[in-house]
Design goal:
Helix content is 68%, strand content 0%. The protein has 405 residues and is an all-alpha fold. Among the domains are: 1-136, no CATH class; 281-405, no CATH class.
Length: 405
């Protein structure tokens, strides 16, 4: 009996681990004495079945806790923890048991949120903390864990159970771990916070995640116009239906593909007319006039003649407009003429025209014209259409800048 008591006090329950220690040690002696007097002192039996049977007559939570933590047999430990019903005792077992089945059983029997919070906040065992966190619903504790816990896994798990938008916004913008931040933004719905991330975060994936959740057309338009990532710009335009916002993107976007994507979604004639009147890009104005029936593409090509500036405007307008099979030959000739002028201001549009009106011969002209960016455009076209690029007698009908005057 003396050995039993000493082991319990000195080895299993150090005084700095649990505040209720004095209560447990003071209440332990009497039940064991009673068991001895009753002839039921079989907890010291070498037969685990005897020890299990002995537990059936024990209700003292401290004794059960000692057995659940210390007994050498898993069956006895499981029987003991199964008979514990006091929340504070279950907390002690969860935090001190080494057997994963024992501490899991203890945690599973706890429903009190303060008790679960104590385990998550104080336990040194990550597995125990995670088990308790899975049952935790108290938003205050979850918020504290999400913003302050030193372990990223715990912060991420807490974020996944948190609904407080202020907490989620803080984690999204301030956490040092990208996976925690992604978990937070996945639950974030506050438009102001999302806008801050979409327009200012350094991480492309975070900006992308924010854009894909935003609804404000003005913020989405700004993202489409200013973002350095083409895929973020594309995602922003995909979420815009507001015609004025689409007009703004068409007029101001840095990426040519973004401008074309926005222009393709413009359908309101009043907005188109307003954009035509206000834009500083003659190519956009010409494309709108073509769409509104005020000009035709073949006529615009003919009027460009040998004027480099006008030719560039037509190249831009043609690239913005839908493909028109009736002008395929004229479009190819326009590309040749503009390449001869050696004007690099419309290279993205020339690449777009190759995608729209390209043939094997025109792609080879791009490859061999002497401009590196058009060479890349030609290679991209070849890859997209199943061609391999090699040395040989490819088409080389035009050279970059040969017609400069």
């Amino acid at each position: 009996m003396q050995r039993f008591e000493n082991n319990f006090n000195r080895e299993q329950y150090p005084r700095n681990r649990f505040g209720a220690f004095k209560h447990y040690t003071m209440s332990l002696v009497l039940p064991v004495v009673v068991l001895l007097l009753a002839g039921c002192a079989t907890l010291s039996s070498s037969n685990w079945r005897d020890r299990v049977k002995a537990l059936q007559g024990i209700s003292d939570q401290a004794v059960l806790a000692r057995v659940a933590i210390e007994d050498v047999d898993a069956n006895v430990r499981q029987e003991a923890v199964g008979r514990i019903n006091d929340p504070s005792t279950l907390v002690m077992v969860a935090m001190q048991a080494k057997d994963s089945k024992i501490y899991a059983t203890a945690v599973n029997k706890i429903y009190d949120q303060k008790a679960l919070a104590r385990i998550v906040l104080e336990s040194d065992d990550m597995n125990v903390r995670c088990l308790a966190l899975n049952k935790l619903t108290d938003q205050t504790t979850l918020g504290k864990l999400a913003t302050e816990d030193p372990n990223a896994k715990i912060r991420k798990s807490a974020v996944g159970k948190n609904d407080d938008q202020k907490v989620l916004a803080r984690v999204t913008m301030e956490d040092s771990d990208i996976d925690v931040r992604k978990a937070a933004i996945a639950r974030l719905s506050d438009e102001k916070a999302l806008a801050t991330v979409a327009l200012g975060d350094k991480d492309t994936d975070m900006r992308m995640a924010a854009v894909q959740k935003l609804h404000d057309p003005a913020v989405l338009a700004n993202a489409a116009i200013s973002d350095e990532s083409p895929r973020v710009c594309k995602a922003a335009v995909e979420r815009i239906s507001d015609q004025l916002a689409l007009g703004k993107v068409t007029a101001e976007a840095k990426e040519w593909d973004t401008r074309k994507q926005a222009y393709a979604k413009l359908t309101d004639k009043d907005v188109l007319g307003k954009l035509a009147a206000e834009t500083n890009d003659p190519a956009v104005r010409l494309a709108i006039n073509v769409r509104l029936g005020k000009m035709t593409l073949d006529r615009a090509i003919a009027q460009a003649a040998d004027n480099t500036t006008q030719m560039g405007n037509v190249v831009g307008a043609l690239a913005l407009s839908d493909r028109d099979d009736a002008i395929s030959r004229a479009a190819e000739q326009l590309c040749h003429n503009y390449i001869r002028k050696g004007d690099a201001s419309r290279i993205p549009e020339l690449a777009q025209l190759l995608d729209m009106y390209g043939t094997k011969e025109l792609a080879e002209d791009y490859l061999n014209c002497g401009n590196d960016k058009l060479n890349i455009a030609g290679r991209n076209w070849a890859n997209a259409h199943g061609y391999n690029v090699g040395s040989g007698y490819g088409s080389h009908r035009v050279r970059w800048g040969e017609g400069r005057r």
